[in-house]
Structure to design on (220 residues):
């Protein structure tokens, strides 16, 4: 690795580490370029030599807070006997963790990044390649796919091997699942309802399970 590349990676890590610390101490909503710069020991303007936007740095830092979800996801998938069950279980795991850390998951899956999210993910893992250690080939494609719709759709596509489900149904059911989660996430973040993380996850999963029941009934 060239010396310049090593220096760039080191600087990126300085800023990401500083952002992670600020998120842990003050919350993601209070992170600013000035605070990050001060914590990392550089001026805030230096950040923009390495990140196009502050949201990109927050995205990188947020990736450090989803390890528990990614580590637990294989355990959830193993409990499923069919791909439809695995699909539901994958949402259970995602809802459990996302509503416990709504700001983090909003930053990763909803917030406007100003560029393609897949570029961000590839860049992240080029720096933090060790984060991939221990994950199976079934999980790794999900790590590299930042688009929630296509990530979850992959499991339903496999369900076609087990029952007669047409492509349009898969597309629509999966999109509705994502929209249900996004709607509940927005509601939680805007504090429109008084719900704790467990209640938000339970209500979201109720609607997703109902969707899946309707899909299976239509296929039978």
């Amino acid at each position: 690795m060239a010396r310049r590349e090593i220096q760039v990676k080191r600087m990126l890590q300085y800023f990401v580490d500083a952002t992670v610390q600020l998120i842990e101490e003050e919350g993601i909503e209070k992170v600013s370029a000035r605070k990050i710069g001060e914590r990392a020991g550089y001026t805030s303007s230096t950040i923009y030599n390495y990140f196009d936007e502050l949201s990109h740095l927050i995205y990188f830092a947020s990736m450090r807070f989803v390890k528990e979800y990614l580590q637990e996801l294989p355990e959830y998938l193993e409990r499923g006997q069919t791909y439809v069950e695995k699909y539901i279980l994958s949402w259970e795991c995602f809802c459990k963790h996302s509503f416990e850390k709504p700001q983090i998951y909003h930053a990763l899956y909803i917030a406007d990044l100003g560029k393609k999210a897949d570029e961000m993910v590839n860049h992240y893992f080029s720096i933090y390649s060790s984060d991939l250690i221990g994950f199976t080939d079934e999980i790794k494609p999900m790590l590299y796919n930042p688009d929630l719709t296509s990530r979850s759709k992959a499991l339903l596509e496999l369900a076609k091997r087990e029952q007669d489900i047409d492509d349009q149904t898969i597309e629509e059911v999966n999109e509705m699942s994502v929209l249900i989660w996004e709607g509940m996430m927005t509601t939680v973040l805007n504090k429109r309802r008084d719900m704790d993380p467990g209640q938000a996850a339970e209500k979201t999963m109720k609607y997703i399970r109902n969707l899946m029941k309707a899909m299976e009934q239509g296929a039978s």
